[in-house]
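#structure-requests
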Amino acid sequence: MQIKVKDHSVSGEEFELIVNSEYGFLETTPQPSLEKLPSYYESEDYISHTDSKRNLFEKIYHLVRVISLKKKLKLINSFNTKNKNLLDVGCGTGDFLQIAKSNNWEVSGIEPNEQARIIANSKTDNSVFEIEQLLQFDKASFDVITLWHVLEHLPNLEDYISVFQKLLKPEGRLIIAVPNYKSYDAQYYKSFWAAYDVPRHLWHFNRKSISNLIEAFNFKVEKIKPMWFDAFYVSMLSEKYKSGKMNPIKGFWIGLLSNMKALSSKEASSLIYIIKKD
């Protein structure tokens, strides 16, 4: 599989997606240098770095986020860990950490974007750090490490997985949520699929490639859960990229169709992987 995809939200540049021969995920090619990568996030439309609600699209995003936060909290509370130490990598403006903290979790966050980090720290009593802090935490410090739509953004992927392996307690859980390019909405929109989001998304996963990657670091997938709302959000944005204008009814329909097909195929638009040490 090889596909050309345009950066619709910032640069307008084209990138190719090429299969990684070792793990089976797709790689964005060429990948921006570490120095240039932050420039691709410099957009007022990058919702996860702001708390703005300027239009209907952003208002819907934030409404859905409230519901999603409660589901995420329910998930981490289900692990019945003796201690409740949480690390959220790529925590954005800190809403998940805030709700976890209010439910008796000891929280730490990593957020490279300064603007988002300042907002997050105002919600978490300064518990959010720059990315270098990952190497400063003690080994086996965390019961749960979460990456909500973050793994696809991380350069030097294997280095990060190795760090998470060291930071997680023996009975801890690593939770990774990523888009799934095997979903119906991805197949329908092809190069216009918004969840490719090149070059901010450096890697593009399916179920098999996630397993291949984490098994190389003595992890195993314990359970996979769908993220139903993502199909609607991604499809509406994809429709805008494809047609040049918002078409919420068409986008909603494709999202609904994708979810209906995922009931049997298990290939939802985005998937949550609950991972433990093997």
